[in-house]
Amino acid sequence: MSLLERLNSDIKQAMKNKEKDKLTTIRMIKSSIQNEAIKLGHELSEDEEVTVLSREVKQRKDSLHEFEKAGREDLAEKIRTELQYVELYMPEQLSEEEVTEIVKQAISETGASSKAEMGKVMSAVMPKVKGKADGSLVNKLVQQHLS
């Protein structure tokens, strides 16, 4: 079942169950995916769908951080709920240990030895963990292992 088919099915289910927040969030995800497909001019591959979902998660995490900083708990709670629904469609996330192994492997492959070569390591790691690990976690681990 493709992601769009799954989204359509979940939209119908959310409508039947009268889950307004879930329905709204799923529609936003579907809209983002369809807009990206229109922009690129073709059906999205699984990788491209993960990219769109990752963007949606990142936007919500940024919003959540800002709302919490501003003391707007009402809005923060709404964003937390949306984030839960978006994450249902993301690939299973890698554990910190798994990401650490990928980082170590990339460092040995690239021969990087200092923080000046961090970009080289990041460009080797990110395609391997795309959508499966948070970029800030990868960044932190790469810095730790290069220092």
From TrEMBL:
InterPro entries for the chain: Asn/Gln_tRNA_amidoTrase-B-like, GatB_Yqey_C_2, YqeY/Aim41, YqeY/Aim41_N
Coiled-coil region(s): none
Top-rank lineage group of the source organism: Bacteria
GO function terms (MF aspect): carbon-nitrogen ligase activity, with glutamine as amido-N-donor
Secretion signal, residue range per the UniProt entry: none
The name this protein goes by in its record: GatB/YqeY domain-containing protein
